[in-house]
Amino acid sequence: MKGECTEKNLPMVWLWLLLILATIEFATSRTTPPPLPIPPLPTWSQLKWQRRELVMFHHFGVNTFTDSEWGTGHENPSVFNPTALNAGQWVDLAVDAGFSLVILTAKHHDGFCLWPSEYTDHSVERSPWRGGKGDVVGELAAAAKDRGVDLGLYISPWDRHDKRYGQETQYNEYYLGQLQELLNRYGSVSEIWFDGAKGSNAPNMTYYFGSWFSMVKELQSAINIFSDAGPDVRWVGDEMGYADSTCWSTINRTSLRIGDGSIVSYLNTGDPRGTDWLPAECDVSIRKGWFWHKSQSPKSLSQLLDIYYNSVGRNCVLLLNVPPNTSGLISDTDVTRLREFRKAIDVIFSSNLAQGSVIKVSSQRGGKKSNFGPKNVVDGDHVWTYWAPEEQKDGSHWIEFGWNGKEIRFNVVRIQEAIGLGQRIQRHEIYVDGDRVAANTTTVGYKRLHRLGRVFHARSVRIKIVQSRGLPLISSVGLHFDPFWHN
Ligand code: FUL
Q1: Cβ pair 473, 418 in contact under 8 A
Q2: Residue that finishes a domain, picked among 349, 384, 401
Q3: Among 6, 224, 242, 274, which has the highest number of CB atoms less than 10 A from its own CB?
Q4: Pocket test for ligand 1, best of 103, 158, 159, 239 (most atoms within 8 A of CB)
Q5: CB-based burial of residue 381 (10 Å sphere; 0-12 exposed, 13-18 middle, 19+ buried)?
Q6: Distance CA 69, CA 102 (A)
Q7: Does residue 402 come out as left (phi exceeding 0), alpha (psi in the -120 to 50 range) or beta?
Q8: How far apart are CA 160 and CA 110, in angstroms?
């Protein structure tokens, strides 16, 4: 009978069965796609900024020559006379120390402009330096471009020199004019810095931040705007270079106001329920002051490393100020210290004991053959490849490193999240040979560094994700030995 399974047509039945099985196998062996992102997400420019980790700040201007931090605005431009200014030396140092972006105080609160502005005569044009033909912004822009380093600018809204300050429309026009000059004249600018400082003589002076920011984006679409309230990078809330141990890149921008002192602790921690991606930048000076003073010297290596662990190691970018001196160069003491700093970071982080380990995980999204396996955490990519677990009822996930019974010596754990898909981890713990060595630890974000209480000789290290917004996605793990860390 037709369609009946007889001995005669048995080979055909087998053939059909095989074909069906092959089709099923083909369908299910297609790659499991990435999980859905959990917004808010970083923009391309924010992600690029975050991966820099280190940004250099240069405070330079009339204050350098008058030995002050806040100029009065009455300085005579003739005081500005660096004897050997060489922006190439500044940028060479940035390159050697691993900084890919340098930000200059084009204008500080004293109002003196380091570029020849058409809108004021209170600038380098009136100084004896280079016979009044000099342009510090231009020289830095050229030196940075030559060396493949990006440029950023700080233009203080508070201007203690200009007569228009306090007259709302006139001053805002003046400020906008200067923004246009700077952002049109010097090529690509990657970051611009705004603070909310105001003069006590004009407490009601309103800065038109909305118009300024729109103008900035119109002229430089890939730029990151820094301020207390973003829109792209937020202030961390202190000037010590320390973030809170809980640090979200997310926050509610509607709760932020530029220059409002009451929000500093909110800025310090961010907000897991925040609707805006606004990562924090930690600004601090290598010396006590922002400007160079003969009487001051650079911080010690261990202070700089503390700052590094508490900024870069807490999901932030470190903006380290290195002020040029009266000759227009970075002092030898600071150069030496920064080279030591770079060398120490390389010594600590260039070898990763997690590499070459046997890695076990609680589960793997899409099964063993998927793209989300644990090897992704040691492949050198810190964003786009990651270990992803399966959804789990009790919500806890873990990843464990072992060395076939051998011991490794370490005292630092590095964990990085795949932030391109959102910041997720809320609570995590670390176990060494089954003992919990880090408890109640919270956020991870782009990079979290834990200096442990002592040096461990470990056969196994487990990171447990106790709580997260959706699935935790870990892009990188490092187990390191820091010989400089003695607590
Ligand atoms: C503050 C200024 O008042 C300081 O002088 C310094 O420039 C610091 C980075 O920002 O707002």
Answers
A1: yes
A2: 349
A3: 224
A4: 239
A5: middle
A6: 20
A7: beta
A8: 5
Nearest partner of 108 among 60, 163, 162, 166, judged by Cα: 60
Residue 193 lies in a domain: yes
Rounded distance between C-alpha atoms, residue 15 and residue 440, angstroms: 59
The DSSP secondary structure of 409-445, one letter per residue, reads EEEEEEEEE-GGG---EEEEEEEETTEEEEEEE---T
Estimate the crossing angle of helix 87-97 against helix 136-146, to 10 degrees.
40
Provide DSSP, 252-293. -GGG--TT-GGGHHHHHH--TT-SEE--EEEEEESSSSSS--
Q: What tokens appear for 359 in the block? A: 């890695």
Q: Residue 28 — very low, low, confident or very high, per pLDDT cuts 50/70/90?
A: low
Same domain for 149 and 238: yes
Q: Is the pTM of this model over 0.85?
A: yes
Q: Look over the chain and give the mean of its residue pLDDT values, rounded to a whole number.
A: 95
Residue 250 φ then ψ, to 5°: -105, 150
**Amino acid making up residue 265:** S
Task: Dump the DSSP string for 126-195.
Answer: GSSGGGGT--HHHHHHHHHHHTT-EEEEEE-S--SS-TTTT-HHHHHHHHHHHHHHHHHHSS---EEE--
Q: Which domain CATH number covers 174?
A: 3.20.20.80
Residues 129 and 257 both lie in one domain = yes
How many angstroms separate the most distant Cα atoms in the chain? 110
Q: Which two tokens stand for residue 234?
A: 């937020």
Q: What is the C-alpha separation between 90 and 84, in angstroms, rounded?
A: 12
Residue 114: is its pLDDT beyond 50? yes
Q: How far is the CA of 54 from the centre of ligand 1 (A)?
A: 19
- Could you tell me where the DSSP H helices lie in 330-396? 332-349
Q: Residue 55, exposed/middle/buried by CB under 10 A (0-12, 13-18, 19+)?
A: buried
Give the ligand 1 atom nearest the CA of 285.
9
The pair of structure tokens assigned to 102 is: 């340098």
- Domain around 460: 358-480
pLDDT confidence tier of residue 30, bands split at 50, 70 and 90: confident
Mutation pick for ligand 1 pocket among 55, 59, 286, 292 (CB with most ligand atoms within 8 Å): 59
Backbone angles phi, psi at 437, to 5 degrees: -110, -10
Q: What are phi and psi of 381, to 5 degrees?
A: -90, 130
- 199: DSSP letter: -
Q: Report the DSSP beta bridge partners of residue 151.
A: 102
